[in-house]
Amino acid sequence: MATDHPLEKTTPADAVPGAPADLVRFDRVVKRFGDHTVLDRLDFAVQRGEHVTLIGPSGSGKTTILRLLMTLERVSDGVIWVDGRPLSHMPGPDGGLKPASEKHLREIRKKIGMVFQQFNLFPNMNVLRNITEAPVSVLKVERAEAEERARELLELVGLADKAGAHPTQLSGGQQQRVAIARALAMRPEILLLDEVTSALDPELVAGVLDLLREIAHTTDITMLCVTHEMNFARDISDQVMMFDSGKVIESGSPEKIFGDPDHERTRAFLSAVL
Ligand code: ADP
Questions:
Q1: Rounded to two decimals, what is the model's pTM?
Q2: C-alpha of residue 30 to centroid of ligand 1, in Å
Q3: Domain locations in the chain?
Q4: Alpha-carbon distance 120 to 141, whole Å?
Q5: Are the beta carbons of 133 and 167 closer than 8 angstroms?
Q6: DSSP single-letter state for residue 80
Q7: What average pLDDT does the chain have?
Q8: Is the pLDDT of residue 85 over 90?
Q9: Residue 62, ligand 1, Cβ within 6 A
């Protein structure tokens, strides 16, 4: 039912026996675009409630990872697991696996919210409608209930007075706050943040990062975050993964990665961006 608590710890009915217990697991994931291998047998896991930051040079595959999780792209090989379900397959009638249906993907997608670099608000809808659209049409929440929740979220993101505004009447920072509220309105278990401050004017960046810090520190939502904001990454991360050419070259606590990285490549990257 739509109002189920999003963080309820139950075993999903369509979980596959023997599936990993991690909330997210990439298992030898390969992603190719034509003959360009962007991710090369990538393995990593994210635990429930963990905040993971993906750092590394442009073109190293970070955004592709978020897009695969959001099912905006399909893997070329390997398996992505979300809460015990493979993204590419689902349990078949004989106990084996069959290719994932759209319905299976939709069910998994409900667990995941994404905030994009370019906000991607619906331009023809006001702020309130942007936030309530998916809860009403996808989760089948009553409109009045969705609006009440949307107003709470607008309060949280500091835009209580903008419910009736259209996206074009808002600054970039305000639009991104609405996009964050819209993602949270779906009560996601996992929030994907893809360079959410890169398109903002510099003076608007700190406010959005402070909001995300607050969300990270006051909710149980699992976060996967691609960012070039290293201080932010240091503040919110349980785990930092350093990517290069579609591989994790090292991962660890922010203290380890920012303070004493093992790899020369990580040191070079950090000295270029810090
Ligand atoms: P990052 O987020 O680390 O900057 P991306 O995941 O955006 O890296 O991109 C990794 C590589 O994949 C880049 O070389 C990019 O050009 C390529 N790529 C990403 N999406 C596509 C696509 N839809 N078609 C072709 N190449 C793509």
A1: 0.91
A2: 13
A3: 22-105+189-273, 120-187
A4: 22
A5: no
A6: E
A7: 91
A8: no
A9: yes
Strand order in the sheet with 85-86: 36-46, 24-33, 77-82, 85-86
Structure tokens at 56: 């590394």
22-105+189-273: CATH topology is: Rossmann fold (3.40.50)
pLDDT of residue 192: 98
What pLDDT was estimated at residue 10?
47
ipTM confidence: 0.97
Binding site membership of 63 for ligand 1 (Cβ less than 6 Å): yes
Cα–Cα–Cα angle for 108, 112, 115, rounded to 5 degrees: 145
What are the tens digits of pLDDT across the range 26-44? 999 999 999 999 999 999 9
| DSSP codes, 154-175 | HHHTT-GGGTT--GGGS-HHHH
Atom of ligand 1 nearest to the CA of 56: 3
pLDDT digits (tens, 9 = 90+) for 87-118: 887 777 777 777 788 888 888 899 999 999 99
Residue 74: CB within 6 Å of ligand 1?
Answer: no
| Radius of gyration for the alpha carbons in the chain, expressed in angstroms and rounded | 19
Distance 34 CA to ligand 1 centre (A): 12
